């Protein structure tokens, strides 16, 4: 079992998931890159499992770790860092 981290792009008008962008980054590197990310009490510093909404600045800082380019539009979409277990 492997953890997969993604940036989820949700449409603001109906909160529908439009696209997921895979992020190749460890939990430690996320915390280093997003030094202003405040973890929820039930999350861990060595593994980030919960979902976190990202600001425009945070998304820019984490974008170099995406497997494909993202053309962010914060007027239309909301962006969230999420984690899933890949059971493949």
Write the layout of secondary structure elements.
Blueprint (H helix, E strand, L loop, with lengths): L1 E10 L5 E7 L3 H7 L18 E2 L2 H7 L14 E10 L2
Antiparallel strand pairs: 1-2, 1-4, 3-4
Return the CATH class.
Alpha Beta
Strand content: 25-35%
Provide the helix percentage.
Answer: 10-25%
Mean pLDDT: 89
CATH architecture: Roll
List the uncertain runs: none
SSE series: EEHEHE
Give the count of helical stretches. 2
Corresponding CATH superfamily: Cloacin immunity protein
Total individual domains: 1
Tell how many strands the DSSP assignment holds. Answer: 4
Which of globular, elongated, flat, extended, rod-shaped describes the shape?
A: globular
Pfam families: DUF7683 (PF24731)
InterPro entries: DUF7683
Organism: Chryseobacterium cheonjiense
Protein name: DUF7683 domain-containing protein
Outline the structure in words.
Helix content is 16%, strand content 33%. With 88 residues, it is of the alpha+beta class. The chain has a single domain (2-86), classed as Cloacin immunity protein (Chitinase A, domain 3). The chain has a four-stranded antiparallel beta sheet, with no helix packed on it. Strand 1 (2-11) and strand 2 form a beta hairpin. The longest helix has 7 residues, at 27-33. The termini are close together. The model has no long low-confidence stretch (mean pLDDT 89).
């Amino acid at each position: 079992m492997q953890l997969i981290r993604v940036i989820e792009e949700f449409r603001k008008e109906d909160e529908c998931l439009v696209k997921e962008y895979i992020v190749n980054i460890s939990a430690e590197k996320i915390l280093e890159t997003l030094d202003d990310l405040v973890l929820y009490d039930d999350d861990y510093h060595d593994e980030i499992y919960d979902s976190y909404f990202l600001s425009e600045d945070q998304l820019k800082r984490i974008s170099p770790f995406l497997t494909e380019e993202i053309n962010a539009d914060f007027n239309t979409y909301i962006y969230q860092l999420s984690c899933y277990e890949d059971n493949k």
